[in-house]
Amino acid sequence: MRTVLKNEILEVSIESKGAEIKSVIKDGKECMWHGDPKFWGRTSPVLFPFVGSVAEGKYRAKGQEFPMGQHGFARDMEHELVESSSDFVHYRLVSNEETRAKYPFDFCLEITYKLVGNEITIGWKVTNTGNETLHYAIGAHPAFNCELDENGTLKGNSVVFDTDKNVLTVRKFHDPLAAKDTYELPLPADKSIAVDEHTFDNGAIILESSQATGVGIKDASGKLFIKLVFDAPLLGVWSPSGKNAPFICLEPWYGRADAEGFTGDISEREFEQHLEPGEAFTTEYKAIYY
Asked: Please, what sign has the CA dihedral across residues 265, 268, 272, 274?
């Protein structure tokens, strides 16, 4: 079931399956990728209770091994519509027999969307409803439409970071796992990196340890047309390798794919989040459309 939010600037369509934004229209123009599986079949999934992949497709918890696909399962489940108005919607996903069979923890995941002018505020709340520590990750994966050049590539677009750093430290990525090494990415004065057909040849650009508080995309004219503002400790920037896909994903994360060779318990995963019984984690990020 889709819910449409609308104000004087934005019209936003959200699907109850995955509580996923499917469309954002501003000035008659679609801002979001439409999910063509030729390139990537999603639009803006919420990643929970895993961000990225687990090593060898399985993870360990409570002395057992469990298979787990990339990015967890919340994006593929129906979410309960709790409340809605013309500019606000609230969804909820609660653990059940189906989730416990593959993820042996009790939780309540709440996702909200609120329109204010040209901004969408996306809120997440994770509550530990069980009687033991909850280990989880959560992240965003929105894909924004970009114009291609005359050769059908992303060349001319650029990604700009809100950061006080002149050099970013990027985690190498050996799809689908994080590599053990990093590399340095120098930034010019405007804190941007030019994008072309080879930018994502080695997978996502992954920043760790709160190196940026915002990220946006500029078109070939230098106009900023989307910006995310967040407090997440990790950020991924991605477009499918070698496909010249007409979109770029900007992804604030609280969690990350396993590192190569990791065989520990879920509680030992790098950047994993933890909640004690009865505790809740709340956060939000903003998507600003120009």
From this structure: positive
